[in-house]
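Researcher: I'd like a candidate sequence for this fold, 465 residues long. If you have to choose between options at a position, lean toward the conservative one.
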């Protein structure tokens, strides 16, 4: 019987002496579990402060970018370039009166915001910011912790976070809040399945679920010779596994619950969704959870598909020390803010979708495409391990994908036109608005002069006389 790789790795780490684990090279799972308590606490504090600052900057950045896209300045009064506006808005919101409606389940009502924000903070603990550096005389990785199944921790925390949204809607004793909470749970279930499937191809190529090992697996993809220089090309999975990357982009928008997938907070039909009855600091906790989730999903995408903290190829080809010391933090932050800008750009550009469109995209498009892509990647890996020629396989797969896309487009158009024709045939004749006595004309109908209108006209003539 074959034992899973993660179990073998965990058993090996458990059997390895502590000193060998701490000094193990290269940087990977063996680099964790050896830091003193004060260094672990300092890392946790730095991550907490980093996330709070990222939320403040994200709010300011979003308002400034959307303002530019809409030809208006955005916040520019509080502090230089308006940088303090987010901080002052947070202080103002936290000091407002905390209103608790009657009849709510107070215990659950108070715990729901905490349950929404805490998992978002925990998820960032497995994100690598850089390689091994020296802090206080200790060699330590720029990452709080790592696990053999670290990526699954993010999915688990996302599943836990949705409890906060559901309980907030249920405990508020409001139909709008309850509907928002139910929408949130259905949306997370639909898109978390597709998100987990988009990770499978990465696991197959990297051979691990550890974030540090996945970053290491993207370090070297090939050798290049250019103008007398020789080096290694990075094998970022955004190129090798581009369909997985595209699927993840859709699912991270659905997981974050932002426009165009902000159906749990649809103002047009639900007032504000699950946090309708919340105010003051508890409302800010939901706000905090949304932006921390956005940063966590962006950081995870950077780690899985863009080489993590490693510098892009043009820089590594010129500068050999780009991935050493503290410089990797800079490359990581640049990639992180690229994805945050993507979130903002999508919000400013696309309208909110209908709920049936949201569910159809998740269940009928993303999940089937993910399953087909996983089967294709698994077959390619198996054939490559057996030294088969992959060119006819790739060509046949490309032709099959094109045929499937054309057939699905024709089927969708035919079924849509058939439903429209059946609906037109089954449509009942419009009722006469004047039938049955009191006239009630529709808003888009011509003006009917009934008895009340005649009396109003006579009254107006008498007044003018």
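Model: Candidate sequence:
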């Amino acid at each position: 019987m074959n034992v899973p790789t993660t179990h073998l790795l965990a058993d090996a780490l458990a059997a390895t002496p502590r000193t060998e684990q701490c000094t193990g090279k290269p940087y990977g799972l063996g680099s964790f579990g050896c830091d003193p308590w004060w260094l672990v606490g300092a890392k946790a504090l730095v991550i907490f402060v980093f996330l709070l600052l990222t939320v403040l900057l994200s709010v300011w950045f979003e308002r400034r970018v959307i303002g530019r896209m809409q030809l208006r300045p955005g916040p520019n009064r509080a502090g230089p370039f308006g940088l303090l506006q987010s901080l002052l808005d947070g202080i103002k919101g936290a000091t407002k009166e905390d209103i608790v409606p009657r009849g709510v389940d107070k215990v659950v009502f108070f715990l729901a915001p905490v349950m929404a924000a805490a998992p978002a903070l925990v998820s960032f603990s497995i994100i690598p910011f850089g390689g091994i550096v020296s802090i206080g005389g200790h060699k330590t990785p720029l990452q709080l912790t790592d696990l053999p199944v670290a990526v699954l921790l993010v999915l688990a925390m996302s599943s836990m976070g949705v409890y906060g949204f559901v309980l907030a809607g249920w405990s508020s004793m409001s139909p709008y809040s309850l509907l928002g909470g139910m929408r949130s749970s259905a949306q997370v279930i639909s898109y978390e399945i597709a998100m987990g499937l988009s990770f499978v191809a990465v696991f197959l190529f990297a051979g691990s679920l550890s974030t540090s090992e996945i970053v290491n697996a993207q370090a070297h993809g090939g050798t290049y010779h250019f103008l007398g220089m020789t080096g290694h090309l990075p094998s970022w999975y955004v190129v090798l596994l581009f369909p997985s990357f595209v699927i993840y982009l859709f699912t991270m928008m659905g997981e974050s619950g932002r426009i165009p997938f902000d159906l749990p907070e649809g103002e047009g039909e639900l007032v504000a969704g699950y946090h309708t009855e919340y105010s003051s600091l508890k409302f800010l906790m939901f706000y905090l959870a949304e932006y921390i989730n956005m940063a966590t999903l962006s950081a995870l995408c950077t780690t899985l598909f863009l080489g993590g903290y490693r510098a892009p190829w043009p820089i590594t080809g010129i500068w050999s020390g780009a991935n050493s010391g503290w410089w990797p933090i800079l490359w990581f932050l640049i990639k992180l803010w690229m994805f945050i800008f993507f979130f903002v750009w999508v919000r400013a550009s696309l309208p909110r979708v209908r709920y049936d469109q949201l569910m159809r995209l998740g269940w009928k498009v993303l999940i089937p495409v993910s399953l087909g892509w996983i089967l294709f990647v698994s077959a390619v890996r198996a054939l490559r391990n057996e030294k088969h020629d992959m060119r006819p396989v790739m060509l046949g797969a490309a032709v099959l994908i094109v045929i499937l896309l054309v057939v699905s487009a024709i089927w969708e158009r035919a079924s849509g036109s058939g439903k429209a024709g059946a609906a037109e045939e089954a449509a009942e004749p419009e009722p006469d608005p004047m039938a049955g006595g009191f006239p009630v004309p529709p808003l888009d109908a011509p003006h009917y002069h009934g008895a009340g209108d005649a009396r109003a006209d006579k009254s107006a003539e008498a007044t003018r006389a």
